[in-house]
Amino acid sequence: MGKIILTGDRPTGKLHVGHYVGSLKRRVLLQNSGDFDQTYIMIADAQALTDNIENPEKVRQNIIEVALDYLSCGLDPTKSTLFIQSQIPELCELTFYYMDLVTVARLQRNPTVKAEIQLRNFEASIPVGFFTYPISQAADITAFKATTVPVGEDQLPMIEQTREIVRKFNQVYAPVLVEPDAMLPQTEASRRLPGTDGKAKMSKSLGNCIYLSDTADDVRSKIMTMFTDPTHLQVSDPGHLEGNTVFTYLDAFCTDEHFERYLPDYANLDELKAHYTRGGLGDVKVKKFLNNVLQEELEPIRQKRAEYEKDIPAVYEILKKGSEVARETAAKTLDEVKSAMKINYFDDLELIKSQSEKYGK
Ligand code: TRP
User: Fold this and answer.
1) What is the CATH number of the domain that holds 252?
2) Is 9 in the pocket of ligand 1 (CB under 6 A)?
3) What is the rounded distance in angstroms from the CA atom of residue 161 to the CA atom of residue 274?
4) pLDDT tens across 300-331, in order?
5) pTM of the model
6) Residue with the nearest Cα to atom 9 of ligand 1?
7) Domain of 265?
8) Residue 36: which CATH number?
């Protein structure tokens, strides 16, 4: 059986460099690796609505932003199927049947759901759709018989819950569904890129994100004001790397070749870190280097984005075509699911025959 990728993002904002280094960059590599038979990339608008009931316009507006970010990073509609979750009604049908296989207690124990309920102060009034979104996510994954789901660490409980649903379904009905594996980002730094202010998470409301669609000037000024080491007051002071955002970003983005090009006094990041820790290396120099590194990575993305921005209808057309393809696949799986559940009455000639025999005919 083939190897199939499915992953996606909620369209609640533009994608930032944390998304890029934690996931998008890898997706493009996987897409181009030839190791996978299919790659499905989903804009999870229906899931985004589960906690944005009062804000549907935000979700609607951000679909195109996420699509532009995908395309500009190198996701290629001739190689990957880019689609919109809500356009695949089969996913709702699957979700409805999977709901019978999951208990309320099990959902309550899902660590991601738990954390998000707290984060949103939902305790007393959790929307049912939000509470059950792990089941809908299991439908997203299994509809495409995905073997591999590239996600961040926070999504591991979702994959685990999906695997349980698959096992349960296959045991109760018939072995139709495929148990997926999560694929996590490769390095510590790419797993959790902090905000430019040093806070653990990049978030739009904190204004501490570097977006893929930021201009070169924006990126530069965000880097120049980045959080470093508050005890590193004079160039001669010894600096600390722990919690130093500039170095965390360098961990995530820079290679030895970047040193050759932009900072040839050092062979690699270890040497730069050693000098910083020893004292005698100023923040500005490190920040200028990070700026060179990031601009080199982001410039081709910006250029590609500008091209796609010239023809927005074409981008919607890509999503439409992708949604049609995705829908065909999901419909096939749904057929198999309904056959396994024996709710395919009109195709079940055996059933019709046996019922008519029961009535003596
Ligand atoms: N829950 C994911 C997120 O918040 C988005 C998502 C929805 C997803 N369905 C998925 C990711 C299926 C991977 C597979 O980012």
Assistant:
1) 1.10.240.10
2) yes
3) 44
4) 999 999 999 999 999 999 999 999 999 999 99
5) 0.94
6) 137
7) 216-308
8) 3.40.50.620
